[in-house]
TrEMBL record:
Subcellular location: Cytoplasm
The protein's name in its UniProt record: Ribosomal RNA large subunit methyltransferase E
Gene name in the database record: rlmE
Molecular function in Gene Ontology: rRNA (uridine-2'-O-)-methyltransferase activity
Family to which the UniProt record says this protein belongs: Belongs to the class I-like SAM-binding methyltransferase superfamily. RNA methyltransferase RlmE family.
Keywords, comma-separated and alphabetical: Cytoplasm, Methyltransferase, rRNA processing, S-adenosyl-L-methionine, Transferase
Species this chain originates from: Terricaulis silvestris
Top-level lineage group: Bacteria
Positions contributing to S-adenosyl-L-methionine binding: G94, W96, D112, D128, D152
Reaction catalysed by this enzyme: uridine(2552) in 23S rRNA + S-adenosyl-L-methionine = 2'-O-methyluridine(2552) in 23S rRNA + S-adenosyl-L-homocysteine + H(+)
Record GO cellular component, one term: cytoplasm
Length: 236
């Protein structure tokens, strides 16, 4: 996910910053000044300190600010329905799993290369979604075809915009291929895709497979971020 920093500062942040208070802000600033050498990591932590969605996520019990992106998309497109089967690709740290469960999903399965702490009501896999065995494992755990395929997968950023766009676009295309092959009739698909990053041929295939395909940028998506979300509704 693009909200995530490199591993070392992420571990330090989670270990040392535990609340949204002024004391936590001051502690975060000390961590920023003393311990983080990478400029990109400094920028990430500075954003976290000043981001109201981060404080709100802590206050409401969400694992990441990205939970609000799914909440806003669901409020607009009515994606999550009671009892449905949902698969979450790139699920760490588990914020989207929390939202899916809280909004009434019947079966929820998540997968990520990173470890995901257990989420009550969800099954999680720590494995590469691109592994040949991954789709079958997800479908077996889900107990059938997914009614909703979610993907917030993003490659670690390099700082080179076009490279990041291509790498994240490749993950979005893998998620789209899975959705085309496995989504249940009437189902939906949502994926992160940097602007202009989805292959035109695959986009055309999505439009043939789903009744409606559109792009959306939820309010909680940072204004300076190139990310958009592709929302495909009504699997034919």
């Amino acid at each position: 996910m693009t909200d995530d920093p490199p591993e070392e500062p992420k571990r330090r942040w989670r270990n040392k910053i535990t609340g949204g208070s002024s004391e936590a802000r001051a502690l975060g600033e000390r961590v920023l000044k003393k311990n983080i050498r990478s400029e990109s990591s400094r920028r990430w932590i500075e954003r976290q300190i000043n981001d109201p969605y981060v404080a709100r996520a802590r206050a409401e019990g969400w694992r990441a600010r990205s939970a609000f992106k799914l909440i806003e998309l669901d409020d607009k497109y009515h994606l999550i329905k009671r009892g449905m089967r949902i698969v979450d690709l790139g699920a760490a740290p588990g914020g989207w799993l929390q939202v899916a469960i809280k909004r009434g999903a019947g079966a929820v399965v998540g997968i990520d290369l990173l470890e995901i702490e257990p989420v009550t009501g969800a099954t999680v896999f720590q494995m590469d979604f691109l592994d040949r065995e991954a789709p079958a494992a997800l479908l077996k755990a889900l107990g059938g075809k997914p009614d909703l395929v979610l993907s917030d997968m993003a490659a670690n950023t390099t700082g080179h915009a076009r490279t990041d766009q291509i790498r994240t676009g490749a993950l979005a295309e893998a998620a789209a291929t899975f959705a085309i092959q496995h989504t249940a009739p009437g189902g939906a698909f949502v994926t992160k895709a940097f602007q202009g990053g989805l292959d035109a041929t695959l986009l055309a295939e999505l439009k043939r497979t789903f009744s409606s395909v559109r792009h959306a940028k939820p309010p909680s998506s940072r204004k300076g971020s190139p990310e958009v979300f592709l929302v495909a509704l009504g699997r034919k």
